[in-house]
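Dear Dr. K.,

Following up on our conversation at the group meeting, I've run the structure prediction for Pyocin activator protein PrtN from Cohaesibacter celericrescens. I'm pasting the input sequence below exactly as I used it, so you can double-check it against your construct before we proceed with anything downstream. Let me know if the numbering doesn't match what you have in your notebook.
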Amino acid sequence: MKTIFLLMAQYDGQAVIPLENICEDFFGLTHQKFLRKLNDGQIDLPVIRMEGSQKCRKGVHVQDLAEYIERRRQAAQKEHQAFWG
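The predicted structure tokens came back this morning:
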């Protein structure tokens, strides 16, 4: 899986990528809209809380983001194949 290595390079080897970066870089959403979509189940991506507090910093593990991107890629390829044959 090459996606994880690309993400590690993009985010300087961070294991957990801050949610603010994910929102902007991949979804083009504000932090609040992104959280709303997560809570509504529109985005299937596990979010890590660094502490038990609601106000603590949140992030996404690089492996989870890589797998999410791969799932979205597979869905896009399937859609493309259905359209173009």
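Two things stood out to me. The chain has a mean pLDDT of 93. Residues 3-84 form one domain.

Best regards,
J.T.
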